[in-house]
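User: I'm putting together notes for a lab meeting next week and I want to include a structural view of one of the chains we've been expressing. I don't have a solved structure, so I'd like a prediction I can at least talk through. The sequence is below, exactly as it appears in our construct file.
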Amino acid sequence: MPESELAELVSQLNQKLDELREQGRRQQRGGERVRARGAGAKDKLTTADRVLAAVLYVRKLGTRDLLAQLFGVNGSTLTRAVHQVQPLLAEHCQTIPPSTARFHKPADVAAFLANSSPTEIKATR
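Assistant: Thanks for the context. Below is the predicted structure for the 125-residue chain, given as structure tokens.
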């Protein structure tokens, strides 16, 4: 998926993901927010990170644990993000084919990138 397509997908899903996140938080709180918007803990993954993580997970490029390491979060945070984004991808008719490349450790990803030319990397997207 070219960067331009990914950026367009992120912009399409941004508002819906924000709505879903707020709806989940409202349900957790049992009502409307007490604090001002923006107060409290910050999300560990941006909307773009969440969409990218979901796309990589659906493509089966790596295990959940590997993707969590690459994004600097724990496995449950990554799983939650993927589960929120996957239905939206289906809603927007985004069919993401599985990749032929499989990675199990961050070192595998680094070795692949080190041994690939920029045009080869673009071809695998």
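A couple of points you could mention at the meeting. The two ends are 5 Å apart (CA to CA). The chain is about 65% helix and 0% strand.

User: Perfect, that's what I needed.
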